[in-house]
Amino acid sequence: MADFLNSLLAWFESTHLQQQIKDVDYVGLFTNPWFLVPFVALVLYLLYKQAFRDLILVSLFVAVWWVSGLDYMQTMVVGDELQINKVLPVLFGGAAVLGFVIYLLFGRSD
To answer: What is the pTM of this model?
Structure first.
């Protein structure tokens, strides 16, 4: 099992996904019509279908993506040392968002 996890971790590191997400040009993305038109169409479709749960989940995904690119997140590790006073608010915020998502998916009935 440990060998499988190590190979999975090595594959994840070889994709350089974290660096790709870090290098995204947000302004360019949200002004690019090839992204913006389908995104706006999705939001309008979800509003038309009154799928507010799905709309909230899409909004949370975009918000988490935006927050992950803030300068605050870049300064959580200074040198080789993790700044615990900056990690705790992120941890509790993530737990609150996760609790809200679990409530949306399993706690409510439509």
So the answer is: 0.68
